[in-house]
């Protein structure tokens, strides 16, 4: 699950909303509770979309969180569509989780928590590896200075 992939799917979702009659970038940004300038940064791939914004776009516009986060399933959740003038396309099979707003949000939040935990574990491991590299470089530098290399050749 790459952040750039999630951002691209978010942008695809927003472009789908923009095609709907009456929806504008400013209106969508306001509905998501973010400033239009920040929204523009996200849409131009200069900033990553936040988890709260992803959850809201799913809640407000019936996007499938599995599709947004993982690229799995259909873009839209079947059934009544919130905030859209066009009906959702039908899908054959959805993941096994409740399709009401609360169930979708809980599912989405759990995925994001799991992702954040994995990122934290990876960041900790990276920190340990960097410390080990620094230690090895210091040790290598000490070994080189202890070698006692002089500019004088000795013949024996």
Can you give me a brief rundown of this structure?
This protein has 156 residues and is mainly alpha-helical. Helix content is 62%, strand content 0%.
Write up this protein.
The structure is a single chain. By secondary structure, the chain is mainly α. It is 62% helix and 0% strand. The chain is built from 6 helices and no strands. The radius of gyration is 25 Å and the shape is elongated.
Largest sheet: none
Could you state the order of secondary-structure elements as H and E? HHHHHH
SS-based structural class?
Answer: mainly alpha
Number of E-type strands: 0
Q: What's the arrangement of secondary structure elements?
A:
Layout: H1 3-19, H2 25-32, H3 36-43, H4 51-61, H5 65-70, H6 101-146
Helix pairs in contact: 4-6
Descriptive keywords:
mainly alpha; 156 residues; 6 helices
């Amino acid at each position: 699950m790459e952040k750039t992939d999630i951002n691209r799917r978010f942008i695809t979702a927003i472009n789908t909303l923009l095609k709907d009659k009456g929806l504008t970038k400013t209106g969508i940004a306001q509905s998501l509770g973010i400033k239009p300038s920040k929204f523009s940064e996200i849409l131009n791939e200069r900033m990553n979309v936040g988890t709260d914004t992803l959850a809201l776009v799913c809640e407000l516009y019936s996007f499938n969180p599995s599709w947004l986060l993982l690229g799995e399933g259909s873009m839209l959740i079947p059934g009544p569509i919130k905030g859209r003038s066009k009906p959702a396309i039908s899908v054959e099979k959805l993941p096994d989780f409740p399709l009401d707003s609360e169930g979708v949000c809980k599912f989405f939040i759990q995925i994001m928590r799991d992702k954040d935990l994995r990122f934290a574990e990876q960041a900790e491991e990276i920190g340990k590896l960097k410390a080990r590299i620094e230690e090895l470089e210091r040790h290598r530098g000490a070994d080189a200075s202890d070698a006692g290399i002089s500019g004088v050749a000795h013949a024996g």
